[in-house]
Amino acid sequence: MLVVIAAAVTLAAQEKKDAPKKAAPAMTKSTILHPEMTPGAGSYDKPMANLGTKPAEAWTTTTTAAGVDSKPQPGRPITRVGEIVDFSCYIQLGKHGEKHRSCGQKCVQNGQPIGLLTQEGSLYMLMPEEHDPRRDGGVDAKASAADQMGHIVSVSGTEASVGGYRAIYVQGLTK
Question: Is 109 among the domain residues?
Fold first, then answer.
């Protein structure tokens, strides 16, 4: 009797395995969290502003000199277009866009990290590039980030990444 039950279970499992599989429904969901929260100004074709300048070399002399054995981590000059976001609220709550502008402005003015959210949903942390002035408080990204919070802008600088974290180090931000 056990042999008959085992044979029936095996046959049923084989039939299920051989049955045609249904295609999974196509997902068209955006990779941007809460896409209903839209930017207030600018477009991906016509950004509202430009932040930074695309450097000829990846790192400034102060950054190179500050590197271990004067060798900073690899970086490459890039320009990306995206929405300026409050990094912390975006990751924690999915908030961005015009409806989140005033909260995002307060957050970055009070030290929360600044982000750039691309149309594809990539998120970069934005920081001033110049090492010594950044360390000594001579440059600051808070004012320009607060001014452009929730807007689509073009950002030029040096891209660097470590362990899944991506950043753009922006040259020319003043305090």
Answer: yes
